[in-house]
């Protein structure tokens, strides 16, 4: 089963790639995220924050980033350059957003990492998740992070052996590889791993790992890697 960060992401352009140093299983970076942010000492607002937006706690906002009215950001949070945080977006702590990202109207992020060029543009929930570069979440895509029985999240592999990996986490959302796209109103169950370049639509994988070379595409889905996202439209 492919579970290392390099199986999902090209981190070469991510300003905070050292966060992933020495990580064996990709979800383990979420355990490190709070202490990484606690050690961060550059808390400046360099972007444009509109009247009516609320910022609380330690927050860094990069140059060229626009925070629209009534967005609510709770630190610690790092938001990169040239991002758009739209009206009524909610960022509620332990979040790193890379450069050129969109967090849209009524989208919520907590305890998550978005790499450069990714979008959660319309009514998305991203909890305890890691979103790769150039990923677009369809409107209403939910990265669920808690099992109904509130037990530990396991990663169930799509291999003949059906191997299952414990994560040690009660809360774990999705890990979505670079260039992936999700359909509208898609719910990803806790512990879902999606490989690079996949186009995912219902039915969604249920807490399983998709093998490399087995992307979730329909016959009509083209390879989306490298295509610009239309999320801003």
Task: Give a description of the structure.
By secondary structure, the chain is mainly beta. It has a single domain (5-209), classed as UDP N-Acetylglucosamine Acyltransferase, domain 1, CATH 2.160.10. 6% of the residues lie in helices and 28% in strands. A hairpin with a 6-residue loop joins strand 17 and strand 18. The longest helix is centred in the N-terminal third of the chain and has 11 residues, at 29-39. The protein is globular, with a radius of gyration of 17 Å. It starts with a helix and ends in a 24-residue tail after the last strand.
What is shown here, in short?
With 233 residues, the chain is mostly beta strands.
Q: Tell me, what's the shape?
A: globular
The computed structural class is mainly beta
How many strands, what sense, and barrel or not for the largest sheet? 7 strands, parallel
Runs in which pLDDT lies below 50 for 5 or more consecutive residues are: 216-233
* SSE pattern, N- to C-terminal: HHEEEEEEEEEEEEEEEEEEEEEEEE
Helix % is under 10%
How many discrete structural domains?
A: 1
* Spatial strand sequence of the major β-sheet: 2-5-8-11-14-16-21
In the CATH scheme, what's the topology name?
UDP N-Acetylglucosamine Acyltransferase, domain 1
Number of helices: 2
Q: Determine the N-to-C terminus distance.
A: 37 Å
Roughly what fraction of the amino acids lie in strands?
Answer: 25-35%
Question: How many β-strand stretches?
Answer: 24
CATH architecture: 3 Solenoid
């Amino acid at each position: 089963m492919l579970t290392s960060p390099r199986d999902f992401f090209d981190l070469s352009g991510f300003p905070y790639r050292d966060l992933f140093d020495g990580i064996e299983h990709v979800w383990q970076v979420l355990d490190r995220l709070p202490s990484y942010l606690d050690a961060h000492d550059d808390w400046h607002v360099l972007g444009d924050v509109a009247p009516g937006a609320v910022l609380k706690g330690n927050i860094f906002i990069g140059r060229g980033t626009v925070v629209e009215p009534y967005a609510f950001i709770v630190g610690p949070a790092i938001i990169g350059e040239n991002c758009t945080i739209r009206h009524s977006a909610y960022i509620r702590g332990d979040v790193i957003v890379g450069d050129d990202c969109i967090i849209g109207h009524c989208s919520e992020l907590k305890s998550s990492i978005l790499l450069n060029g990714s979008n959660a543009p319309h009514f998305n929930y991203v909890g305890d998740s890691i979103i790769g570069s150039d990923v677009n979440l369809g409107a209403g895509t939910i990265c669920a992070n808690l099992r109904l029985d509130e037990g530990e999240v396991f990663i169930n592999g799509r291999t003949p052996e059906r191997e299952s990996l414990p994560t040690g986490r009660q809360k774990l959302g999705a890990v979505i590889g670079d260039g992936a796209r999700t359909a509208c109103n898609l719910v990803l169950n806790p512990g879902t791993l999606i490989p690079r370049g996949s186009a995912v639509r219902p039915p969604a994988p249920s807490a399983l790992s998709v093998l490399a070379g087995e992307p979730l595409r329909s016959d009509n889905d083209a390879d989306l890697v490298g295509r610009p996202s239309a999320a801003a439209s």
